[in-house]
Amino acid sequence: MKAMFLAFLAIAVIAVGADYALDYAGWSSAERTTGEAVRLD
Amino acid sequence: MSARTSSGIGLFLLVFVGLVAAALIGTAVIDRPEPLPEISREATGGAQTLEDILRRQEGLHTGQKTDPEPNVDPSVGALSTRGSASDPDLWRGLRYDTANVTTQQQGPAATVLIQDGGMRWLEWRNGPLKEWGAWLLIGTLVALALFYLVRGRIRIDGEKTGHKVKRFAGIERFGHWLLAGSFIILGITGLLVLFGRIAIIPLVGRDAYAPIAAASKWVHNSVAWAFMLGLVLVFVMWVIHNLPNRHDLRWLAQGGGLFGGGHPPAKKFNAGQKLIFWSTIVLGASISASGLSLLFPFELPMFAKTFDVLNATGLPELVGFGTLPTEMAPHEEMQLAQLWHSIVAFVFIAIILAHIYLGSIGMEGAFDAMGRGKVELQWAREHHGLWVEELERKGKTPDTTDTSDGKGTATPAE
């Protein structure tokens, strides 16, 4: 059953990693839908 | 005296006739103004021009069908472009996306302020999609329950050998569970979002549903990547075993053993598993494509191009759909992606429900294959006889793969 639990752990890691990576790469909704004149922080 | 009187009456008549004539001429001038020259709107493509605006401000008609009534009260908005009346040209431009709109918000859809095609999507999403989708899932569960009641659990027919044979390597099980686990999460969160308004809010209220919906959205968007990775892994590992062969027809003819008695021979995967595999690959690829289109809004439109290709085949005409639209608003692309994503998801979930049933309570010994990776030899002989023969020919006999620590030395037949 180790493979199964490892896969479930991988799902969580991939999900968090994907969210972080996309945000870091500038793919957040806020960044994609606002112009340069908008201050997000 | 009489001559003076006579000339006075004559003068009176002359003045009277003159006044009447002047009044008639004046009335004629007021009632029938000189027709104004027609305004050329070539430069604006038919939309209003500066001359239209100036005439309206003077209370004159411009000749357009949509011309508003001239201002009744000149003091109200007399100097605006349309006086105090509405501006049909502007609204028409906004509705048909021809108005020159500039916004601070970016993206291809930011300047589309009105998209009336969205109502069709909303009605479809809230109507047939939910109703048919729900009935499909309920129908599948009922059918599986009936099958269980009628057929019962599919048992291992022969005597158990006590030996186990390695069925799936660790990486295969990892790929399967990566795909399966993410699919279940995506299915549950997708259903929560789709049916939340009618099924969850009445139970828990809006305040409690809001964080559920927000969490479901985040989980759905993020777990999708694990699903896509699992899909690729499973495809690469198992495609070679899922190519059709001559045994599949016999397996299907016997309904996998339901008819005709006995177990039809099968290699590593039988025809039923192959159907599940190819359904997963095709539906998984399609749902991933529409999912990516939704994950990156307006960046990956695909329906206009798809419809263009379909139109070229003549298929839509043949089945009575006419010519499919190949030009659509950015939102329309997203709406079609959402509908397609959901339709594929419902079919996918129904198929996987059957797969889960057979892989768990529906068949004795089946879960072991994906649980610990090893199956009872008798089970393998009954359901995958040709695969066991292959193992034995290669010297990978069950005994050598049956290790107590679960780390068999042999690899499954490749």
Please provide a written account of the structure.
- The complex is a heterodimer of chains A (41) and B (414).
- With 41 residues, chain A is mainly α.
- Chain A has one domain (2-32).
- Helices cover 66% and strands 0% of the residues of chain A.
- Chain A has two helices and no strands.
- Chain A has helices at residues 2-24, 29-32.
- Chain A is rod-shaped.
- Chain A starts with a helix and ends in a 9-residue tail after the last helix.
- The mean pLDDT of chain A is 89.
- With 414 residues, chain B is mainly alpha-helical.
- Chain B has a domain at 119-401: Up-down Bundle (Fumarate Reductase Cytochrome B subunit).
- Chain B has a two-stranded antiparallel sheet.
- The longest helix of chain B has 35 residues, at 170-204.
- The A-B interface holds A 1-4, 6-8, 10-11, 14-16, 18-19, 27, 32-35, 37-38 and B 104-107, 110, 170-171, 173-178, 181-182, 185, 218-219, 221-226, 229-230, 296-297, 370-373.
